[in-house]
Design goal:
Strand 2, helix 2 and strand 3 form a beta-alpha-beta unit. The protein is α/β, with parallel strands linked by helices. Helix 1 crosses helix 6 and helix 8 crosses helix 9. The chain is globular and about 55 Å long. It has two domains: 174 residues, HUPs (Rossmann fold, 3-Layer(aba) Sandwich), CATH 3.40.50; 78 residues, no CATH class. The chain is 38% helix and 10% strand.
């Protein structure tokens, strides 16, 4: 597998996967694409289908049970456009049930929802249904986030792991927009509202201040539900915990969604909202412990 820092971003490389970066164009093994319901994962599936049309390809979706309703529409329409089957797996709990069961409110440093509902659910299905000798796992990491792929192959050993959006020529979300239009599939509604991803109903425990500020304006009903659920967890745990942190003044303390909302609604400036330009990043299937 290619060293991510050595990826050649020039346009004169071979089209598609090639032996010089450790990939083979022709591969009759079972191809499993981690299919999140976002545009990057759809583009990943499209590329695998394009270069390995004769292989068995499965789209694997892990459901957190807090997804935006339109995600399921996109999931099915996108798969139908590609002519590929979707396997949908779920722990059965939503993120808030996982938090309650563990008496722990997830945050950017400890996103237990990602581990339980995404990673462990996917791991269970893959290891029960896929032979490592005859399976390739595909993840939708593009050139703008190649650094996030470092831990993935180690976690999934002995399975082979590939990143189709890093095959040449490199593709990104702009390519996804073009191909989705050609396929007649409307993008998920959250993107049109300005969301950076289509997971967990538009929010994420790893989101930054800018993301929460966007959610308050763009999807206030989701923000309100998360605010209420966060307070329920604070009451259950009986301590001053929060998803966000306030790092103003050189210190760090919990910043509740209620306090954050009140700051926004009081017209505090961006400068007064520490790290207000930080969107954070969803890393459910690209960041692992250890």
């Amino acid at each position: 597998m290619a060293v991510l820092s050595d990826i050649d971003t020039s346009d004169d490389g071979p089209l598609g996967p090639s032996s010089d970066d450790g990939h083979q164009i022709s591969d009759d093994r079972h191809q499993v694409v981690f299919y999140s319901g976002g545009k990057a994962s759809w583009l990943t599936a499209h590329r695998v289908k394009e270069f390995r049309p004769d292989a068995e390809i499965t789209l694997l979706f892990t459901d957190t049970k807090v997804e935006d309703a339109d995600l399921y529409r996109f999931l099915d329409e996108g798969a139908e456009a590609l002519g590929l089957p979707v396997v949908k797996v779920a722990d059965g709990r939503d993120i808030w049930q996982v938090f309650r069961d563990n008496k722990f409110l997830a945050n950017n440093r400890v996103p237990i929802c990602s581990r339980v509902l995404k990673q462990e659910a996917a791991d269970k299905w893959v290891r029960a249904n896929c032979d490592p000798e005859n399976t390739v796992l595909h993840f939708g990491i593009d050139w703008t986030e190649a650094h996030r792929a470092d831990r993935i192959p180690k976690h999934w050993a002995p399975y082979d792991v590939e990143f189709p959006l890093l095959w040449k020529p490199l593709l990104d979300r702009l390519d996804a927009d073009k191909l989705l239009k050609e396929a007649g599939v409307a993008e998920p509604r959250l993107y049109a509202l300005g969301a950076p991803h289509n997971n967990c109903g538009g929010l994420c425990v790893r989101a930054g201040h800018a993301h929460f500020k966007w959610a308050l304006a763009a999807i206030p009903e989701v923000y309100a539900e998360w605010e209420e659920r966060e307070q329920e967890m604070r009451d259950l745990i009986g301590s001053d915990v929060a998803i966000m942190r306030d790092r103003s003044g050189g210190t760090s303390r919990p910043l509740t969604m209620t306090e954050f909302r009140e700051r926004i609604q009081s017209s505090l400036t961006n400068e007064q909202l520490t790290l207000s330009d930080d969107w954070g990043a969803c890393g459910c299937m690209s960041e692992y412990d250890g």
